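Dear support,

Our group has been running a series of protein-ligand predictions, and this particular one with zinc ion is the one our PI (initials K.S.) wants archived with full inputs and outputs. We had some confusion internally about which version of the output was final, so please treat the block below as the authoritative record. The input we submitted was:
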Amino acid sequence: MDIHRGYKYRCYPTVEQVELLGDWQGKQRFLWNLANAQYEYAYSRCRADRWRLPSAVGQIYELTTLREMLPWLRDVPRDVQNQLLIELNLAWQRFVKGIAGRPQFKCKGKHRAPVIAPQDYRLEGEGRKRHVVFPKLGTLSIICHREPVGKMTKCAVSQDGDAYYVSIGAVVEADDPPVSTKPMVAYDRGVTNTIAGSDGSIVRNPKHDEKSHKRKVRLQRKAAKKQKGSNNQKKAYARAARCDRKVRRQRNHFLHVLSKDIAKSHGVVFFENLNLPNMTRSAKGTKEKPGRNVAQKRALNRGLLGACLGELKRMVTYKIVLEGGRVVEVPAAYSSQECAECHRVDAASRRGERFECTSCGHRDHADNNAARVLLARGIVVLAVEPTVTVCGDAGAQGRSKKQKLRVVRRGTRREGAAKAAQLTTR
Ligand SMILES: [Zn+2]
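Confirmed final output from the archive:
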């Protein structure tokens, strides 16, 4: 299988290069918005007039004429502009398939258009201090904290606040790993405890964002009060952005360490199927029908998003595949009210963080109990699957969402439980 990897290095452009990059940004943004307008127009006429969306090849062909009409566009390398049109096309494909949101028009000072060289770049030097030679931009010095492995693909220059980064993509060809025989585990995800496992483990949410939320709000308020457009305001906003970046890095570090640990020590990981976009919807309502408890819901949403429940699953999913394991989603309904021992569902069993069954008296931490319920459900889901592979079903990854649902629905719950019982007694 091909393993796609990304390497992101901090880079230090010179003052001239920073200026040039800012200039390119404006031109790339112009091109993005122009090309995106074509997509928007075609999309609006898709239904009624059966228009088709523009293709990347067609737009790249048109770019030749555009560069003749607007000579200032030629400052940016042709390859980089071609790649921008390809990225836009991919973004629209993802939108049409329902994987991602609609590609947006880019606004100055708010969004950045991609600056990506598909091939004509070089990585030079050895050791920690190296250089990337980017077309027309020149030599960028980078801190190579990790050796890139595999065949290098495209290279992007990006900006985060006042810091610049070079990202290099690489493809590694590797043999499929043997199917993992490590134990199964289910995790209940939440805000107070990021995960609680069916094995009794609990990882508390470090709440990085809560710790610096006050500071960030204060910095943003301070910046907003400065004279509009002044250098002091720019500096103040940069300070707020640095605060935000720190939280993002802390969170990412925590999730990477946790997900790697989970992926290394388990063969199958069950997660409950959460509809995060619906869960984190605002309670604001409309002007005529304002919602209730808007501030509380906003705080809850911030907590849910800050806990990065979706990102953790995404990281575990791609890391566990390399170890020969897999992630399976199981239905989440009433998992927090069901007893893991006698499977009786009763809201009264749950008392805050404690769980005490009203029927059999089973006691446990509420989240660990929910994780054990999920484990039982997950084993049923695996048993109902047509090809019972306890771990590592490579075929499942290629299936569409609809097909996957069909697979799960093919058997009833009771049949699945009987099958699971057979498997365990064998
Ligand atoms: Zn019970």
